[in-house]
Specification:
By secondary structure, the protein is of the alpha/beta class. The chain has seven helices and seven strands, in the order αβαβαβαβααβαββ. The protein has a seven-stranded mixed beta sheet, with helices on both faces.
Length: 178
């Protein structure tokens, strides 16, 4: 395996719809390693339901995990924590994208920073993202813009990743394996 393929093989993208089991699958995949585990959480608790959801996820992960909460600059967190003996799990890219859109960030530039951070990562990185393009066409311009941006983002990350799985009903379908 060439150095580029080996580097790309450390990056895994897990895609799926809401409640597909993608986060659980990604967590199990990370926990198969004896590495130190770092969870980059992109969600922000703007209401009670989201706060409860975040706490449930933290409890599900258990004490082996270190959680880093970062809503927008996940490239910097990857750069700061990536080591060969550290597995990083980012959950989730679609929440990250919505955070960026709310900040009116330059989406393409920030995604380039993420791809560069993934390329430079010395340890495994697992990314979770929603596949939102299989549903109905959103009835608002913002909804359609989000769907389109998410689709482009998933394509870019999938191209940079060595491994890509689509999760449906808790079952993985490997679309790409390094």
């Amino acid at each position: 395996m060439s150095a580029d393929n080996e580097k790309q093989g450390r990056i895994t993208l897990i895609l799926g719809g809401a409640r597909s089991g993608k986060s659980r699958f990604a967590q199990q995949l990370a926990e198969e390693s004896s590495n130190k585990l770092i969870y980059i959480a992109t969600a922000e608790a703007f209401d009670r339901e989201m706060a409860d959801r975040i706490n449930r996820h933290k409890n599900d992960r258990g004490p082996r995990w270190q959680t880093v909460e970062e809503a927008t600059d996940i490239a910097a967190v990857i750069a700061a924590h990536s080591r060969p003996q550290v597995t990083i799990l980012i959950d989730c890219l679609t929440l990250w994208l919505s955070n960026l859109m709310l900040e009116k960030a330059d989406i393409e530039a920030v995604q380039e920073q993420l791809i560069e951070a993934l390329d430079n990562a010395s340890g495994p990185v697992i990314l979770v993202s929603n596949e939102v393009g299989s549903g109905i066409v959103p009835d608002s311009a913002l909804g359609r813009e989000f769907r389109d941006e998410a689709g482009r983002m998933n394509q870019r990350i999938a191209a940079a990743a060595g491994n890509v799985a689509l999760i449906t009903a808790g079952l993985p379908l490997w679309l790409k394996r390094s």
